[in-house]
Amino acid sequence: MPQSPSSPSPQAAGTSRLRVLFVSSEARPLAKTGGLGDVSADLPAALRALGHDVRLLLPAYRPAMRRAQEAAGGLRVASLALQRDPEPARLLAARLPGSGVPVWLLDAWRFDREGGPYTGPDGADWPDNAERFALFARAAAAVARDEADLGWRPDLVHANDWQSALCCAYLAAGELEGRTRPATVFTIHNLAYQGLFPAEQFWRLGLPPAFWSSEGLEFYGQCSYIKGGLVYADWLTTVSPTYAREIRTPEHGCLLDGLLRARADRLVGILNGADYRTWNPARDPHLAAPYSRRDLAGKAQDKAALQREAGLPVEPATPLMGMVTRLAAQKGVDLVLAAAPRLLADGAQLVVLGTGDRALEEGLRELQRRFPQQARAWIRFDEGLAHRIEAGADLFLMPSRFEPCGLNQLYSLRYGTLPVVRRTGGLADTVVDLAEGEAQATGFLFDEPTAEALAGAVGRALACYRERPQTWRRMVRNAMAQDFSWRRSAGEYLALYRRALAAREAPRL
Ligand code: ADP
Predict the structure, then answer these.
(1) How many CB atoms lie within 10 A of CB 464?
(2) 144, 77: one domain
(3) What CATH number is given to the structural domain containing 458?
(4) Strands 19-23 and 53-59, how do they pair?
(5) 358, 371: one domain
(6) For residue 390, what are the CA distances in angstroms to 38, 39, 118, 280, 325?
(7) Do 437 and 460 meet the contact criterion of CB atoms below 8 Å apart?
(8) Cα(383) to centroid of ligand 1, in Å?
(9) Ligand 1 midpoint to CA 259 (Å)
(10) Tens of pLDDT along 22-43?
(11) What stretch of H or E contains 197?
């Protein structure tokens, strides 16, 4: 039978080039509010570098359109077919600045406004988020079935978080009507964000009435968008193996653990990668002095520069702890505040960069007032300073209550700044405690989310720093040799994509 250009590739499950539609509500540098924006830029680029045809679908938020237009000097209309939707829209063709990954921007009036992807200039959620991301999901399903007249049909759709989850439900609904669909993968970047809307919203989605049940989109009387992915995607992933296990427990399952246990055979944890082009101490424009695993001399200069910038005594032998974080309950900043008198008892220094929760901001200011010779808090977002803290500190604190993957500990490892982390999620998967043996150790872990447990781990770290300098140097070198690159993670996604495709191509009995 002759092949039309839009039919699925015949050996998609083998070694051939895959066509993947990556659906996300963020992709750096066009739109980013958190880790999702990084993953959606870096993973498609890494998959393309491995030879695959990956294209992004992103809402055309006004600031994103502006950035894409500036980068390209104008945007081409790729499709008007979506004008038939109850919420008319069109697709614009763009490229992701930096990597050149092809992007379709979904242009509709609901995205064309000043403000953030999910919130207005006042910080409140857009009141029509339910309509905005239902439209986005319908458009994704249309592109996935080549109903948008693009002449391109993906083998697989990869949707991310609640904002794009419904596209898996729309594709499953279409299949019930006999329409073919690609394989689907849905990634949970943070289960705590679920896209919950009043029940009436379900009846506006145009999905089969049978999807309104606790086995479908209903969630304790509300309409849950994330369930569109959790229930209807062929495969589920999340961003670390430990988080994949944790979300199947009542403690971390956000009331979805039962569903995730039921789908455990289809749930895989794949670690995020770090962007080592941006985070490389040997070539970091933000640093006073570059350094590498072979030549660590620059790190001492970066430490002195950071102590100076913080207004703290410039003392090479004094251990310096760093922290860069959103100030949110998730991150355990309150544990640092509660443990601070113990952490600083022996004269160590602490610098913190973060913004967020007002009470935590005030707590950090108070800490600085109480320990002016030892503690410095910067309440702002500052990319360059984040780099200087990663380089200049000896220890990096990440006492998160939960952490789907975490990026800062990966940067810390690459910068030879030993992480002190709670044994949870991606932190547990990427940091090896000294107790495991000096030959592979890269940091210090603790279990209980308490100030005592944190102080205990920091105490062990400071003792090692002061009393076992050779062990410390060995751990720094171990840490800097770790490879959490996107190339590695992309290979794991690819293996999963092939598994998903093989499962769909297998004859049904
Ligand atoms: P999350 O995505 O949960 O906030 P991650 O550790 O995965 O946590 O990623 C946080 C990212 O945001 C890192 O790149 C970190 O350096 C950056 N970051 C957080 N707060 C700040 C800040 N105040 N200034 C600069 N960078 C920050």
Answers:
(1) 20
(2) yes
(3) 3.40.50.2000
(4) parallel
(5) yes
(6) 18, 21, 30, 10, 12
(7) no
(8) 9
(9) 30
(10) 999 999 999 998 889 999 999 9
(11) strand 196-198
